[in-house]
Design goal:
This protein is about 35% helix and about 20% strand. It is an alpha/beta fold. It folds into two domains: about 110 residues, no CATH class; about 210 residues, Leucine Aminopeptidase, subunit E, domain 1. This is Macro domain-containing protein.
Length: about 400
């Protein structure tokens, strides 16, 4: 069994550096190996690197690490502590704290630390003082930012007889006929959705799908499988399993070129839904299964373009029964979609008479803005999440969500 090892990250910033964001470190190390995790508060030039095996530790330590801006990463082992273990108590009522704390637990456990829930609901952490200080810095940074951030406002899109609402929230709580649940071709459900299913007392869908293989049923990317909802106490009457594509070891231009194929997968899925007389549908962002964080961002952008393009293509049929779609996801995902839609709205030369800027009508397209914003990029991306801040990065359950691929 592999033994995880913790290393300390210290960064010597270059003269022209304005600060190092955690997403930069995560992308840097993810290109080296998928066998590490980063805990980096951002506001200080120090953090933690969790190597999931001794072999990974040796590999990482024997390399010289320099970021693209010239900053140098120094890695070292934890210092010997004077006290055997240090304890601290934190308030679990602080908004967002529990979610961020879950991201810190692998680092705590790897250093021999412990966690305990007290009778008053507070959380007791026990561990190496350096680890506890790092966790405190990370939590303080994240929770302070969560108080400042506001959820994205819902957007309403219209194309033909189809309306699409884009909003942040919980997928399974939506009052619709059916819900799309994305899975990988290895029967892995997106981690955040799997947690929602468990919270509603649902079965483990991943294990259920594996049973299909014994019956000679093999799922492939782009497949849609409709099941009646018998287990979950939610409004949706049916669950539609959608197999997302697998993308690995691809650069941004290659991922962009995959968009037409993915758009057709989504379009055919919508046709399947419509043929089953389903009139309302909820889905998350149908992002592909990727291997590294470096691939995930362009894959996510490609997915948004493909989804919106597929919606518009589907809406061209005046006889569709499916007339209401809700895209509901983590607020960071929704913020990215909204950014692209708002850019389209600003570039579209034909302005609508509506005074509500959150209503976008694709039927009033000026003839070129839709293709510019939602088509396959011809050169440099005109809308990108590459400039997003650390506050625009989801919790750990949204990063590399199909873990089977991340470990392959």
């Amino acid at each position: 069994m592999d033994t995880p090892v913790l290393l300390i990250i210290n960064i010597k910033s270059s003269l022209n550096s304005t600060g190092i964001r955690s997403i930069v470190l995560k992308e840097y190390f993810s290109q080296l190996t998928s066998n590490v995790e980063v805990l980096y508060p951002t506001q200080i030039l120090s953090g933690l690197l969790l190597c999931k095996s001794r072999r990974t530790e040796e590999k990482i330590l024997n390399m010289r690490h320099t970021l693209s801006n010239g900053s140098i990463i120094h890695l070292s082992h934890l210092p010997t502590q004077l006290f055997q273990q240090t304890k601290c108590t934190i308030d679990s009522q602080i908004k967002g704290l529990v979610t961020y704390l879950q991201q810190c637990l692998p680092f705590l456990y790897a250093s021999g630390g412990k966690i305990q829930i007290n009778s008053d609901g507070s959380i007791l952490l026990e561990g190496h003082i350096y680890i506890l200080n790092s966790i405190h810095s990370y939590l303080a940074h994240k929770t302070s930012k969560s108080h400042q951030s506001n959820p994205s406002e819902p957007l309403d899109l219209r194309s033909g007889n189809l309306t699409v609402k884009i909003m942040n929230g919980k997928l399974l709580e939506q009052n619709v006929d059916s819900i799309i649940i994305p899975i990988s071709d290895k029967y892995k459900v997106h981690k955040s959705i799997d947690r929602q299913i468990q919270s509603f007392g649902g079965i483990n869908l991943s294990n259920y799908f594996k049973d299909l293989t014994t019956k000679g049923t093999r799922i492939r990317e782009g497949n849609s499988i409709i099941y009646p909802n018998r287990d979950l106490k939610i409004p949706a009457k049916t669950l539609i399993i959608f197999v997302v594509p697998r993308i690995s070891n691809k650069d941004k231009s290659t991922i962009n070129s995959y968009q037409p194929a993915y758009e057709q997968f989504i379009y055919r899925m919508l046709q399947t839904v419509d043929q089953n007389s389903i009139t309302s549908l909820a889905m998350p962002v149908l992002e592909p299964s990727v291997k590294t964080a470096h691939e995930r961002r362009p894959a996510n952008e490609m997915t948004v373009r493909a989804m919106v393009s597929a919606f518009r293509q589907f809406s061209q049929n005046p006889l569709i029964k499916l007339k209401r779609i809700i895209v509901v996801d983590h607020q960071v995902q929704i913020k990215r979609i909204n950014k692209r839609v708002k850019t389209y709205q600003n570039q579209n030369q034909i302005q609508t008479k509506s005074t509500n800027n959150n209503n976008i009508d694709f039927d009033k397209d000026d003839g070129h803005s839709f293709d510019n914003i939602f088509g396959v990029p011809k050169s440099h991306e005109n809308v990108s999440s590459s400039s997003e801040s650390d506050d625009d990065v989801e919790g750990e359950e949204y990063q590399l969500p199909y873990t089977d691929h991340a470990k392959s």
